[in-house]
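Task card 7
Instruction: Convert sequence to structure tokens.
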Amino acid sequence: MPSSLSSPLVEEKVLPPREKQSPLAWVRRNLFDSWLSTLLTLVSALVLAWAISLFWNWAFTQARWEVIPANLKIFASGTYPSSQLWRVWAVLGIVLATLGVAGGAWGGVLLHYLILLGAAMGLAAFLPLGTQSQGWLAVCSGVTFAAIALSRGRESWRLASIWVWALILPLCLELLLGNLGPNWPAVRAEQLSGLLLTLILAAAAMIIGFPIGVLLALGRANRALPVIRIFCTLVIELVRGVPLTTILFAAWLLVPFFLGGISVNLIIRAEVAFILFTAVYVAEDVRGGLQSIPLGQLEAARALGLNPFQVTALVILPQALRAAVPALVNEFLTLFKDTSLVFIVGLIDLLQAGRVVFTNPNWLGTQREVLFFIGLIYFICCFAMAYAAQQVEKALGLGKR
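Output:
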């Protein structure tokens, strides 16, 4: 009976019993079950021990780790004026408060991340980072937990926590760059640098590029409007066939041209390139999801009397996005790392901030320490995104149903 087979109790009965084995049995079975497996295990262990001993010797006897705390400001915000750093902290507080409201209302992995982040910032407030930084860290931690507590369990706030970003993003941009008064002059966009620039570029490209990519995918899959289909196909194939560095240069040169000669700062030009590049790859990921939907579902939806918009919004697109989650996550991870290419248009991202540090005469010879620290930051960010995606896939039941 199909209805009974889908019940969890029956699925539990159908699945084969799980084999329980001790750790020693697992090691014998997976690492030493044959002479070839034993040889590969021993060689791998020797190579791993050699690599760890080299790293251990360098990390604890040769490395000059003092270069990291001495240049934290450059890594975090690059050339942003020190007298205006309060703006960065204020924007961080606003973003954390907004995320805290979303985390409290939606729960799940976002809530877990925010609790972890708030606790980490609270603990960092006790480190000797300077009175001003410690105070701001404590404020940001308190704001995060206050927003979570305020919105916890309020399901009616869920949609509002998404739409509020339309107001928050322009406010944050104005707070970072705007002329707020005689003592708070405007900051040049090129001074946004370091990790701050990396996060801004990646976040804006993901948020804006995703819906554009979905529209391009729907346009390419549209058989009723051939002009739209041809236009979307041309845009996707043209951008996808060009290296990202070329698109960055093109945006650098052509964005002011298309705006009638209006001056546009470098960050906006680079952001346009990243949004366009992200959108076309998202479109291809979503197109793969669209093609995985059986034609019978489309016919069934039409038989129920749904119009084309309802069929797309309620039946086809949710399933296509669900199927495209792994590919979309991979695309966002690649985008986060590709932001390091903005150096070719003169911007200073996290990687270039590291170059600024180890080319300083006071810190010559610290390339390995700086690059290890930057790599660690990239790894933490990418691992957090990948883990969140795994939780989403688990919640959606990808690969199981």
